[in-house]
Write a structure and sequence with these properties.
Distance between the termini: 53 Å
Radius of gyration: 27 Å
Number of strands: 28
Helix content: 25-40%
Strand content: 15-25%
Strand order of the largest sheet: 3-5-1-12-9-10-11
Shape: globular
Length: 768
C-alpha cells in the first residue's frame, strides 16, 4: 500500500460532526474555570483582591499564586550556551504571576464556579492592584541600554546571546569578497489562531492520588511528563489524554498555566474542572510565532560562487521562555540557512530577547522557513547587484549529487538529494520560460507581475526515539500504538498503510492509538516534520519483531523449523511447500504472543527540500497583491500517501501566503495588542489563494530511516515564504524597489509605490 493515495480514515467522522474535541467532553459534577489576566503589559503586582468574587453565586474558589506556591515552574527544555560559554538565562515562570506581570494576558488568578457563566462573572469582579511600568515589545528595542528590564537577573533582557561559526574566518571571507549583498529583514509576528481554542478537563482520583488531564496537544507522553514535573509527583501519577485536535502548528505542544490551575482545583475541590478559552483570550495567551529582526549578508567571488553567509539580529521570545522558544532564531537558523547551496563558511550571531509580549515559540517550521527566506532573498539581491541571472546564480551554487553525502557549514550532513534536478523541474512546472509574456499581458491590464523563485531545504526535528506497538485484538482488529500525535495531519491512514504493507493485515482492521499516555512506553510527539520518519520507522521495526515472533510460533503450528518459515503477503509459509498459516489466524491461536511494544534507537534528522515558483500581480492604484500562479517540486523521499502529502503542501503554502501578504501581530507603545481579534488580524481565505497550488514529487529516498521518508509538514511554509516575497519584490522592482518586508498588505504596498514614484524609499532599499 506504500505510495497509494488512500483517503483519510478520520474524515467521515469529522464531516458528520462526530469528532470529539476537548470542549465536547464533560464529566459528571464538573466545575468550570475562568482565568483572570493582566490588562497591563508590565507592572509590579501589589495585590489581588478576590473577596467580592468569592461571595458571588456559584463560586467555589479563587486561586492566586500563593495557592500554587508548592508547584514547580514551567521549564524551557533546551540548554543552549551563551557565546561566552555560560548557561542561557532561564528565569522561573510560575503558573500564576506573583511579583510582576509581564504581558497583557499574563494569568494572575483562576476562578472556579458551578457554571462557566458564573466563573466568568466572578473573574470580572477580581481586582488587581498593579503599578504600571514602561513596556517594550520589539526585540531590537529591548536590547537598547535604556529599555525596560523584565527580570532583575537577566541583564539587558538577553535570554541567549548566541553564536555559531568562526567570526574571524567569516569576516576575512567578507573582506576578500568580490561582492557582498546585505539585507535587513523583518520576519513578522503571527497569531497562530488554531481553529480550536485551547481547552482542558482535569479530574483527580483521590484514592489513587492520580490526575487525568484531557487537553489538545502534540504528544501525550511528553506533556504528561511536563505536568508531573510541575506538580512534583512521579510520572505515573498523571495521565494525559488527547482526542481530536483542531490545529496546533506548534502552539499546543506544551503544558500551559491553565492546566496546572485545573489540576490544583480538581484535587482541592474533589471534582472535575473544565476550562475552554475564548477567542479573545487565545489571541493573548496562546504562544505566538516568528518575530525576528535579522540582518543577512552573503559574500560572493567574481564568478558568483558563495563564500560565506552571515546572519545577525534579534529573536523575540516574549515575556517568558517557552519549551523550545530559543531554537527558531538561533540553532534552526544555523541548520537551515545554507539550504541547498555550497556555502563554505557560516556565522549566526543572534540575541534571543525578552519583551513585554505574549510568549513566542514554535510555529509551523520554527525557524526553518525563516532561514530559507533569508538566503533566498539574499540570492535575488546578489543577482541584481552582480548582473547575473538569478536562476543561473542558483545553479552555480547548488550542492551537486556527486558531492552527497555533503557536510554543510552548519555541521549537518546531507545524506540524499538532487537539488539541481528539482530546481529544473520546478522551473518547467512553473513555465518560467514564458513568464515575460504573462508579464507583458498583465502590464496591458495595468498590473505589475512578479516572478518569485524559492528553493528550500529543511532539517527536520532533532534525532530522537519513537514507540511502535502492535497488539492483535480478540475481535480480529489490530491496535497500532505510537507516540506521535495527529492534530490534523491524518496519521491513521498512512500509518496503517505502513503496517498493512509490512504485515499483510487488512488496512480496515487497523486502529491507531496515540492519545492516551497510559498506552505508551515512550513518545516524542509530533513536530518538526518528524511523524512518518519516526513513527514509520517504529512501525516498520515493530513489524519485523512481530514477524520474528511469528516464525517461531508458525514453526510450532506447522511442525517446521523456524529457519524454514518464510513470511510473505500476510502468511507464514514453510519454504518449498504449500503449508501456511495467516498472521491473523496465528495471532488468534496464540493470544498476546505476537504483540510487540517497541522503542526505536535514535533516528537521525532528514532533509526534505524543493523549489517553489510563484507569480503575483499587484494593482499599483490600490496596492492589492494577488497570487495568480503557484507550483512546486519537492523531494520528500519515499511518499507513503501522495494525497495527504499534497494536503500538507496546500496548508503550508496558504499559511506562508498569509504571513507574506496580511498576517501581522502588532503592539502599541504600552504593550497592548492592537491586533487582538479577527476584526484587526487578517487571515488568508480561499479567495486569497491561487486557483491551483501545483505540486510534483522528485523523490530521492533518505538513507537514515527504514522507509526512506523525509517529512513534509512544514515545507509548504518554507517554499511559500521565499517564493511569494521574491515575487512581490520582483513586481515592485518596476518602481526601483529592491526590498520589501512582509506583510505585503495593500496599504503598505500602495504607500511604497507612492513613495517610489516620488523618489523616496522608506528604508526599503537594501545595502549592497
Amino acid at each position: 500500500m506504500i505510495g497509494e493515495s488512500v483517503q483519510r480514515t478520520e474524515d467521515p467522522t469529522l464531516l458528520r460532526g462526530e469528532g470529539r474535541y476537548t470542549d465536547d467532553l464533560n464529566e459528571p459534577g464538573q466545575a468550570y474555570a475562568h482565568m483572570v489576566r493582566s490588562p497591563h503589559a508590565h507592572g509590579v503586582l501589589r495585590g489581588v483582591n478576590a473577596e467580592a468574587a468569592r461571595k458571588m453565586p456559584g463560586v467555589l474558589a479563587v486561586y492566586t499564586a500563593a495557592d500554587l506556591a508548592a508547584y514547580g515552574p514551567h521549564k524551557c527544555m533546551l540548554d543552549f550556551k551563551q557565546r561566552d560559554g555560560s548557561p542561557m538565562k532561564r528565569p522561573i515562570r510560575r503558573s500564576l504571576a506573583s511579583d510582576k506581570v509581564r504581558f497583557v494576558g499574563d494569568p494572575v488568578a483562576c476562578v472556579v464556579a458551578d457554571s462557566a457563566v458564573q466563573a466568568k462573572d466572578a473573574a470580572e469582579a477580581v481586582e488587581l492592584d498593579v503599578e504600571p511600568l514602561p513596556a517594550v515589545s520589539l526585540a531590537s528595542a529591548a536590547a537598547k541600554p535604556d529599555a525596560p528590564q523584565l527580570y532583575d537577573d537577566v541583564p539587558g533582557n538577553v535570554a541567549l546571546d548566541f553564536l555559531f561559526g568562526e567570526p574571524e574566518k567569516v569576516a576575512e571571507a567578507f573582506r576578500n569578497a568580490f561582492h557582498v549583498s546585505k539585507l535587513t529583514l523583518r520576519n513578522t509576528r503571527v497569531v497562530v489562531a488554531a481553529m480550536e481554542p485551547r481547552a482542558a478537563l482535569c479530574a483527580y482520583d483521590a484514592a489513587a492520588g492520580r490526575w487525568t488531564l484531557t487537553a489538545p496537544g502534540q504528544g501525550v507522553f511528553a506533556m504528561k511528563n511536563q505536568l508531573a514535573d510541575i506538580l512534583g509527583v512521579p510520572q505515573d501519577k498523571v495521565r494525559l489524554r488527547t482526542f481530536h485536535v483542531g490545529g496546533s502548528f506548534g502552539m499546543k505542544g506544551s503544558i500551559y498555566p491553565e492546566y496546572v490551575c485545573l489540576a490544583h482545583a480538581a484535587r482541592a475541590l474533589a471534582r472535575p474542572v473544565k476550562w475552554t478559552d475564548e477567542r479573545s483570550g487565545s489571541f493573548l495567551s496562546d504562544q505566538h510565532g516568528r518575530d525576528h529582526e535579522m540582518t543577512a549578508e552573503l559574500a560572493l567571488d567574481k564568478d558568483g560562487r558563495f563564500l560565506a553567509v552571515r546572519v545577525t539580529g534579534y529573536g523575540n521570545v516574549g515575556a517568558y521562555l517557552g519549551t523550545v522558544a530559543p531554537q527558531p532564531p538561533s540553532m534552526n537558523v544555523v541548520r537551515n540557512v545554507t539550504s541547498v547551496y555550497r556555502t563554505p563558511l557560516l556565522e549566526v550571531s543572534t540575541k534571543v530577547m525578552f519583551t513585554n509580549t505574549t510568549p513566542v515559540s514554535a510555529y509551523r517550521g520554527a525557524g526553518r522557513p525563516e532561514a530559507n527566506y533569508y538566503m533566498e532573498r539574499l540570492i535575488d539581491e546578489a543577482a541584481r547587484g552582480m548582473g547575473i541571472d538569478r536562476l543561473e546564480l542558483r545553479r552555480r551554487n547548488h550542492v551537486r549529487p556527486q558531492e552527497i553525502p555533503y557536510k554543510a557549514a552548519s555541521g549537518m550532513t546531507y545524506d540524499s538529494g538532487d537539488f539541481g534536478k528539482v530546481f529544473e523541474k520546478a522551473l518547467q512546472a512553473g513555465d518560467v520560460k514564458n513568464f515575460e509574456l504573462r508579464k507583458a499581458e498583465a502590464k496591458k491590464r495595468g498590473k505589475l507581475r512578479g516572478l518569485g523563485i524559492g528553493s528550500y531545504l529543511e532539517v527536520t526535528a532533532p534525532p530522537n526515539k519513537e514507540m511502535g506497538g502492535v497488539t492483535f485484538e480478540g475481535d480480529g482488529s489490530v491496535k497500532l500504538i505510537t507516540g506521535t500525535l495527529d492534530y490534523g495531519q491524518g496519521h491513521a491512514a498512512p500509518f496503517a498503510q505502513v503496517l498493512a504493507a509490512r504485515l499483510g493485515v487488512p488496512f480496515e482492521s487497523i486502529r491507531l492509538v496515540q492519545g492516551d499516555s497510559d498506552e505508551l512506553v515512550f513518545g516524542a510527539g509530533t513536530g518538526g516534520s518528524r511523524s512518518m520518519m519516526m513513527s514509520g520507522a517504529a512501525i516498520a521495526e515493530a513489524s519485523d519483531l512481530v514477524i520474528k515472533k511469528g516464525k517461531e510460533l508458525a514453526g510450532e503450528a506447522l511442525e517446521a523449523a523456524p529457519a524454514d518459515i518464510e513470511f510473505r503477503e500476510g502468511r507464514f509459509v514453510v519454504a518449498g511447500t504449500d503449508r501456511s498459516i495467516g498472521i491473523s489466524e496465528l495471532a488468534e491461536k496464540n493470544p498476546k504472543k505476537l504483540d510487540v511494544s517497541h522503542v526505536t534507537e535514535v533516528i537521525p534528522s532528514a532533509f526534505p527540500n524543493g523549489c517553489h515558483v510563484c507569480e503575483v500581480e499587484i494593482d499599483p492604484e490600490t496596492g492589492v497583491v494577488e497570487v495568480v500562479r503557484y507550483s512546486s517540486v519537492n523531494d520528500f523521499g519515499t511518499i507513503v500517501n501522495p494525497l495527504l502529502v499534497e494536503g500538507q503542501i496546500h496548508g503550508g503554502v496558504v499559511q506562508g501566503i498569509g504571513q507574506c501578504l496580511m498576517e501581522n501581530a502588532q503592539y502599541d507603545a504600552e504593550g497592548q495588542l492592537l491586533t487582538g481579534s479577527f476584526m484587526d488580524y487578517a487571515m488568508p481565505r480561499a479567495n486569497d489563494t491561487p486557483a491551483a497550488i501545483g505540486w510534483q514529487s522528485h523523490p530521492v529516498p533518505a538513507t537514515t530511516n527504514p522507509l526512506g521518508v523525509k517529512g513534509c509538514g512544514e515545507a509548504g511554509c518554507a517554499g511559500a515564504m521565499t517564493s511569494v516575497m521574491n515575487a512581490v519584490v520582483d513586481a515592485l522592482s518596476a518602481y526601483g524597489i529592491r526590498h520589501f518586508d512582509m506583510p505585503a498588505s495593500p496599504p503598505r504596498v500602495w504607500e511604497a509605490i507612492k513613495n517610489a514614484r516620488h523618489g523616496e524609499n522608506r528604508g526599503q532599499t537594501p545595502q549592497t
